[in-house]
Write a structure and sequence with these properties.
A hairpin with a 2-residue loop joins strand 1 and strand 2. This protein has three helices and two strands. It is mainly alpha-helical.
Length: 99
Amino acid sequence: MSLNAQDIARIANLARLELQPQESERMLAQINGFFAIVEKMRAVDTSGVAPLTHPVAAVQDVALRLREDVASEPNRREANQQSAPAVERGLFLVPKVIE
């Protein structure tokens, strides 16, 4: 995959960025460089390779310090929503902004 100058202009417009021509050229080169790296990584055959739990696990055993997945804070939803202008069934109501 490769981008062109029009793609950079469109992305900059969507991000509300004003790029000078030299900045646009630099961004084009950098982004296409990233895509080139990704393509090289995609070309590597990783079938049969188990995912690592930690990057260092490739060179040494790593004991993961995982905690139990339990709620440790009390449920204070009602107290937190008392100052909200509108709440319905435990959810904050907000005005519609996209039609």
